[in-house]
Amino acid sequence: MTEPQGTVQLPPQLSTIAPEVDDMYYLIYWISVVFFVVITGAMLYFMYKYRRRPGRKAKAPGHATALEIAWTVAPLFLLVYLFHMGFQTYIHGSVAPDDAVDVRVRAMQWNWEFEHPGGVIDEMNLFKVPVNKPVRVIMSSSDVLHSLFIPAFRVKRDAVPGMYTSLWFEATELTDDRECEVDADCPEAHQCGRNGTCALPLFCTEYCGAPQNIQDSAGRNTNHSTMMADVRVITQEAYQEFLELGPPPPPECEGSDDMMECWGEQLYAVNGCVGCHSVDGSAGPAPTWQGLWGAQRAFDGGGSAVADENYIRESILQPQANIVEGYTAVNMPPYRLSDRQIDAIIAYMQTLSE
Ligand SMILES: [Cu+2]
């Protein structure tokens, strides 16, 4: 497999539409170069030829109708041609093939959320896409105007509050996910992404937010220009597996003996359960998880249940199904977690009841 090369002006072409977009770009670029040279050249030549000389009187030229029509009509044809070509590429980039995979992308200050078919929501700011398969991105924004831009794929479109916008692409190369410390460790067009592996960058190109460096609770920089995500092109088999199993455990947990407990603790933190549920028995807006596993739960308005797998699962997916007695003041939002993630949370809860 030969790595596609970038040029001085443009990064490597890693999607099927990239060559088309680049051809369009270079066509306009070279037309501009030719006109620049011809016009500037003529100007310099005439400046010299008709320079002021003693004994020669300036004589303004008269009207040349034929010439004026020629230099108006010729560029008109050229511009209509460029519009036609550009519009064709635009339409091609707008109308996805029928067999495209639909991924919903939600932009919010200052994160990207990706929901894959079957309601599989991946980690924030991580966009997995299958290679050689069209992907349709359906975008929405929950706050301000954002804009999704993946330079290596040559696609960019705004994510607008109150409406859906879409684009599609088909990635042609697997991402080179070698280990890295800084961007320079990665091949062309890649950045050093999460977990110290290379990935393709995805940018938001709107100035939608924080002018200064502001850190979120996870210590990430939320300065607007860092509203970035990693794009990872994976094999179709790996993508299929991802759709079936949901997001994988974080690397810091993988391989350890208590992998599920470790993963559950991580999910507790990154999903914000920590904001309402304590794990040390202290009171808060929601019941503590300490001693919850296996305990008898009494519900608001009567009824009770034992906190087993099914109860925990329902409490996460449909929190309003049963409200724990004394906890009607705060509504828990429903979470769309995969079965494996729920298993991990349960494993973590079990450690809190030993
Ligand atoms: Cu943005």
Describe this structure as you would to a colleague:
Helices cover 30% and strands 19% of the residues. By secondary structure, it is α+β, with helices and mostly antiparallel strands. Among the domains are: 101-245, Immunoglobulin-like (Sandwich); 259-351, Cytochrome c-like domain (Cytochrome Bc1 Complex, Chain D, domain 2, Orthogonal Bundle), CATH 1.10.760.10. The strands form three sheets. Strands 4, 6, 7, 9, 10 and 11 form a six-stranded mixed sheet that branches. Strands 3-2-1-5-8 form a five-stranded mixed sheet, with no helix packed on it. Helix 1 (18-49) packs antiparallel against helix 2. The chain is elongated. 23% of the residues are buried. Copper (II) ion is lined by residues 107, 146, 204, 206, 208, 227.
